[in-house]
Amino acid sequence: MAEPVPVVIGKRPAPVHTVAVYAFAGMAPFELGVVVEVFALARPELAGLLAAPWYDVRVCAERPGHPLEAVGGFTLTPRHGLEELAAADTAVVVGVPDPYGQVPPAVVAALRTAHARGARVVSICSGAFALAAAGLLDGLPATTHWRWAEELRRRHPEVRVDPDVLYVDNGQVLTSAGSAAGIDLCLHLVRQDHGAKVANTVARRFVAPPHRDGGQAQFVEAAVRPVDEPEDGVTRSMRWALDHLARPLTVPLLARAAAMSDRSYLRHFTARNGVSPMRWVAIQRIAASLPLLESPEGSVEEIAAAVGFESAATFRHHFGRTMRTSPSAYRRTFGRAA
Description:
The protein is an alpha/beta fold and 338 residues long. It is 43% helix and 10% strand. It has two domains: 18-206, 3-Layer(aba) Sandwich (Rossmann fold); 233-334, Arc Repressor Mutant, subunit A (Orthogonal Bundle).
């Protein structure tokens, strides 16, 4: 008589969380590499820290087994098809072949299937166009690389595009800004799944901060730009303001430079620029402060005065509103050593 099979009573092992990422011909490899690095790398440093298994990563393409040419002159050959993207626990789109073109219908269908199953759907950089095409961003805040933000807003007005943040977490659907912002979002996912200690350990091996201050506004090239518009009173006042940023500026002063009444000037300026005169002045002062913050010379207080803010507190307020970070944090990120 056969011996009875012993039965071990206890918890079943936790299922492995699958992460599927979409690859395509002509893609830049950085964002794909970020996903693979964070979720697929063997992590002996996490021994004893994980309450659930690490991830199972699958790189997917429309035609599995066919080499894809990547930027940089090399090829990669995904082994998995889009059915794995549809079946994953987390489906990631790190970009689309052409932000100005149509998203492949098979990718849209896979994302819709994944979302309907309750999977987490994630985009990095121009991947937001795929999520928008699938209707997964309708009525939601979302972000993408700052250079694609206006195109995303134009093509998908139902999406509340925020070009300033590093990533947006809507629960089941998450989007990040371009390139390195994908690191921030992937670490955020690890933090959600495994806790802050594990995410910090992954970030340390990645040689990246576990959390960055601010948004992508701080990485957009900014400068006090010359006013190149038809010559009229508003244009004259803007040119005059750029030449006198360090002095106190008020609407009456700007209106006088435009040879207009205060009320008429406010109306014409806002219609022309989409912001009030004093908000425009603050933005120009912030732009003028950036090269000063990138230099090791001068304190935040001295820079605030040099570009025309009445106090360092006012400077910090407007800087945070415009750049989504503080002057000191910006200097730590972009400052040059003495």
